Amino acid sequence: MSYAVKEMFLTLQGEGIHAGRRAVFIRFAGCNLWSGREQDRTSAICRFCDTDFVGMDGPGGGRFPDGAALAETAARIWGDAPREERFAVLTGGEPMLQVDDGAVDALHAQGFTIAIESNGTIAAHPGIDWICISPKAGSEVVQRRGDELKLVWPQDGMDIAALEAWDFANFLVQPMDSDAREENLTSAIAFAMERPRWRLTLQTHKMLGLP
Ligand SMILES: C[S@@+](CC[C@H](N)C(=O)[O-])C[C@H]1O[C@@H](n2cnc3c(N)ncnc32)[C@H](O)[C@@H]1O
Ligand SMILES: Nc1nc2[nH]cc(C(=O)O)c2c(=O)[nH]1
Ligand code: SF4
Ligand SMILES: [Mg+2]
């Protein structure tokens, strides 16, 4: 199938266990928890999104006819750095609306280790090498195992004990970026102080001025 990609760019992973790692980000267009239109935000399931994922008009974005075209562009963006370190982060929008065998096999054929950032409402593709799930209150998460669970905090109506029963190797709490970011940071610090199983993660790319 073809893929609608908002943007594709080289940066450092800003969040989570792989923070600081060189990565090609592939931001797929569209999400199942919000249309991406501001007028729909207050009625959406996910209301705090910090990302423009509408359309295919960003840097490196476009319609890719098949996995080979997607992966060749990712490899070109990775450039001359060592091939054995190639690392791609599939995000969006919700990448699992589009990611399929064609994308995963072609990225692997180009030597990429593949990570995903997903809301977990659609099962992750089994070929993905690193699964990060970020649950959203009011949604049904079906992907309850993976490498990192990244809880954006605070979120009303989140059952933390239920999250802790899921099968993740790492439990991370990330302060919500909003007009209340300072209170949210204080709350996220308190969350991690009270629950030593959870680690604080910050959106370091925003501090560094990286995309
Ligand atoms: C834009 S989402 C795209 C991937 C997927 N739809 C998801 O929600 O996981 C990428 C990451 O940013 C997080 N995020 C989105 N808005 C945020 C905000 N305002 N503050 C902190 N993290 C946010 C999401 O929870 C997710 O972990
Ligand atoms: N540098 C950088 N790191 C990120 N980690 C997760 C991101 C995302 O939007 O999925 C993101 C992003 O947009 N930029
Ligand atoms: S699920 Fe992810 S991409 Fe969709 S609106 Fe929420 S944070 Fe944004
Ligand atoms: Mg982001």
TrEMBL record:
S-adenosyl-L-methionine binds at F48, C49, D50, G93, S134, P135, K136, Q174, P175, M176, D177. One of its GO terms (molecular function) is lyase activity. Pathway: Purine metabolism; 7-cyano-7-deazaguanine biosynthesis. It comes from the Bacteria. [4Fe-4S] cluster binds at C31, C46, C49. Its EC number is 4.3.99.3. Its cofactor is Mg(2+); S-adenosyl-L-methionine; [4Fe-4S] cluster. Substrate binds at L12, Q13, G14, R27, T91, P211. Signal peptide: none annotated. Homodimer. PANTHER family: 7-CARBOXY-7-DEAZAGUANINE SYNTHASE. This is 7-carboxy-7-deazaguanine synthase. It comes from Stakelama flava. The lineage of its organism: Bacteria, Pseudomonadati, Pseudomonadota, Alphaproteobacteria, Sphingomonadales. The gene is queE.
